[in-house]
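Example record

The entry below shows one chain as it appears in the dataset: sequence first, then structure tokens.
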Amino acid sequence: MTSSFTSFNEAQWAPGSSPWCCGCPKCAFSFALIEAATDYDFAIDVVGEDLFSLKKLEELWIRLFDPRAEKPFECVGEKCETLMALVQCKQQRIKNGQPFGALAEIPDVKFDNSLLMISPPKNSPTPHRDKLDSVCKF
């Protein structure tokens, strides 16, 4: 099932390439949402690596949530939505003793579920929906 996920970036259009470039705002934002909704291992299984550990993305993570930084033009979530996903990921990693990477720079704020409403698509075929339900914490 994890091979079905993609961030819908340009990497997926090159023949034989991975559906994840692991270097753009869409990949980063998608990775954060996947980990926030599931867990560390599932997110890495989907994307192929821990995007919070990549040095090349350190500035990008700040641009995705910091209100003082320019938001990337790509189709990514609002800054408050991204911050809540990052807070959720950081809290999960603290609880499970996993490495923080760029999450170490995320401020310690209280998670507000009303700012991050993640739910599976309503029109997913039943077999896909069942698989999503088995890994997601909705």
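Notes for this example: The helical segments are 25-37, 40-47, 58-65, 79-96, 126-135. The mean pLDDT is 82.
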